[in-house]
Specification:
Number of strands of chain A: 6
Number of domains of chain A: 2
Oligomer: homodimer
CATH topology of the largest domain in chain A: Rossmann fold
Largest interface: A-B, 20 and 20 residues
Distance between the termini of chain A: 12 Å
Chain lengths: ~240, ~240
């Protein structure tokens, strides 16, 4: 078992890495679509909603728009996804849209996440470094028993990954050197941005994040410091006892 | 047992309310003074160090100085306290000063704090709303098993209590209305500032925070929404089962 005494904190991508957003969102989208007699596949709708995620954040990363939290972007993206399916937004009460928007607060962890995080927490500081806002992360953690030591991420530093500021400001808040912090993610792009800022990197493979036909992020695209099959495997590779 | 369904989140002052800073700081100051053959009472030194706390933050609250985290102010305040005792700062290695400065990361909770917080956490979101920085709060929580749902406070909003911005920005981050958030503190001044911003208020009496001869904050100075003798009593008054 490796030891890695230099690493003091692990920071985690959440959507896809710690929790299964696609099944969780589709689970709440399904009854919503049925209630409104809309014959749309909930998984396709979840994918359409998620496709708006990167462009919406890019407006803020580019400086064209001031920072707003992800709950706001998710609600706007929901409207865009509905419009793409020709759904009349004005026919749906705003409370119902807010309730659906909170599907992102109610995502289930992958089966290994809680046990793996509990093992990692005994040796390291653990915190989300997600683009999700603080309240979203708190609701998710309370529902799913994710044992975070703190909620870090986009809203704390008022910037979205993969902007370098997110990684460097987080390292500074933790009072550590970049190499003392390890970014954990199921996405090569997130790890590449973290490595550029000097952080250690751990790739956790999540081959069904995007469903059974997933094409991306099935393999590491660089020689990351750690590659793990799930969160328990990562705990083992970082020397954390079961 | 009261119910209070309107309250969704409890935010806590920490130094004095959740943890006993005076005994904790004196415990680390004692060996430091002995090592340097300084005949100073560790409790008096802790009090002198703490006396620099409010003036240091006032520089930032007033806008005369940009925000810096409390670890930085504590270190500067340590130098001031040492100077007041005529201690030659240049005679002490900087690593040793940093180590002593981290006494604030190693404070013990009052005997009722952990049990009370665990009860409150089952019903409410709970987070520190302290002037302490994020890393300080994380170190303290990991050592003392404080079960926070998130680390909020000065560093997240980049302002120091009792500036109104600290309370209002925190309410906004929580996605709540002010009356859905209750400030918990052993200090009437903190509660008065929170009430001005529309938050609910809970006074927890800590009659020995400043030692056996404490004169301040022995009684509520306004009719706070809740007055409790300790954190367990607060949990009972907020309707949380044991």
């Amino acid at each position: 078992m490796a030891d890695h005494p230099e690493i003091k904190a692990l920071v985690f991508d959440v959507f896809g890495t710690v929790v299964d957003w696609r099944n969780g969102v589709a689970r709440d989208v399904g009854p919503f679509l049925s209630r409104h007699a809309l014959a749309i596949d909930p998984f396709e709708f979840a994918d359409a909603w998620r496709r708006e995620y990167t462009p919406a954040m890019e407006e803020i990363r580019s400086g064209r728009r001031p920072f707003v939290r992800l709950d706001v972007l998710h609600k706007e993206n929901l409207a865009k996804a509905m419009a793409a399916y020709g759904i009349d937004l004005s026919s749906i009460p705003d409370d119902e849209l807010d309730e659906l928007n909170h599907a992102w607060h109610r995502l289930d962890p992958w089966p290994d996440s809680v046990e793996g995080l509990l093992r990692l927490k005994r040796r390291f500081m653990i915190a989300p470094l997600s683009n999700g806002n603080i309240r979203l992360m708190v609701d998710m953690a309370k529902r799913a028993a994710l044992p975070w030591d703190a909620i870090l991420g986009a809203e704390v530093v008022r910037a979205y990954k993969p902007s370098p500021q997110v990684y460097t400001d987080t390292v500074e808040i933790l009072g550590l050197k970049p190499a003392e912090v390890c970014m954990v993610a199921a996405h090569n792009g997130d790890l590449a941005a973290a490595r550029q800022c000097g952080l250690k990197t751990a790739f956790v493979i999540r081959p069904t994040e995007h469903g059974p036909a997933q094409q991306s992020d099935l393999h590491p695209t660089q020689a990351w410091d750690f590659v793990a099959s799930d969160m328990n495997d990562l705990a083992t590779k970082l020397g954390c006892p079961t």
